[in-house]
Amino acid sequence: MEKLFKLSANNSSVKNEIIGGVTTFLAMMYIIVVNPAILKEAGLPFGAVLTATVLVSAFSSIAMGLYAKSPIAIAPGMGLNAFFTYGVVIGMKVPWETALGAVFWSGIVFIILSVFNVRTHIVKAIPKQLRFAVAAGIGLFITFIGLINGGFIVDNPATLISFKGLNAVTVTFAAGLFLTAVLVVKRIKGALIIGIAVTTLLCIPIGRFYGDGSWISPVQSSMLVQYNGFFASPDFSLLFKLDFIGSIKLAMWPVIFAFLFTDMFDSISTFIGVAEAADLLDKEGEPLHVKECLIVDAASTTVSGLLGTSAGTSYIESATGVEEGGRTGLTAVITGLLFLPFMFLSPLLSVVPGVATATALVLVGVFMMKPVSLINWTKFDDAIPAFLALVLIPLTYSITQGIVWGFLSWTVIKLLTGKHKEVTPTLIVIDILAVLALVL
Fold this sequence. Notes:
Strand order of the largest sheet: 1-4
Number of strands: 4
Number of domains: 1
Radius of gyration: 21 Å
Number of helices: 20
Helix content: 55-70%
Order of helices and strands: HHHHEHHHHEEHHHHHEHHHHHHH
């Protein structure tokens, strides 16, 4: 262990690394339930997505620890799964097999950019203000989806959306949300997964002793009734079900582009945040092993498409493990190993209704709003493009639209106000791709 992970050099120990790994796992294990719940809306089978989620999370995190020597864990990303389901499959009416292919090809491009260090130029070309706005906008989008899945927000012909009103489901959702929020505030380890479990229990009486949840979805209202035990063999039915050829047609390029850059933003911000928290920086103040980390992250995205889930990405929840003492790749290895047993628990986890996972979605949105404070709201040529990106993601129900209009408005405003130096040639290329995304 000492030779492989250099524990002493990083002021750590096996005990600290195990505690860090367990803490990170508890902070992010909600994805085991939430990711299948979201992708199920795109038509993918819950059990098969759960298997893919566990495999991607386990082996990507282990690879991050062994190859990149980093304490950062990887799993299918929140935001990326929402874009996959609501933006691509439902919004653009793309078959989920083709969407999985787009995930695969975005990973291939990400690997190439990481290996040849091209991603450095791309990342530098994208204004930090827009990166902050996109991250926060995705947070709002995820919260919006959570409020819809919780039955809290519904369609309204007069106002587009409105509050459903008090009933058995909304009261249960609110109770679960408040309980989970208190656990988060008190920094209880595994707060989100505890909240999901308790809300699931609170949902049991709905439709049996009081209320009726069938107005949300017949599937959700019957989930708690169809209990089929604890264990089952892993479901590998999504393995290699992606459409390799259909996903590289011209019309899919904007989707691949959106997957690629959203994943890249997420990864870079996670690496920087966790490295700062753990003081894992080189002499220039840059995160250690960032090239190796990005290669693993990119490989995880590629494997995600092959296994049958949305793109894998680095998790900011890894910072919780760092706070508990995790400093080396052993932390990520421990986290990855803890995912594996859940591959056999799909019958138990499938009883979790959308109302229960909705509480986690709302609070994940809160976590993702932190970058808003870094936007320079007093400098309007920065603030306006950032604001457009921030609000258009949830209001258009599309991460792509937020990114596209954020880039285009930044370029137009900067050029017309004489700030040409803030528009790089690389950003112009990105703008051209953004216009193509709008046209296609």
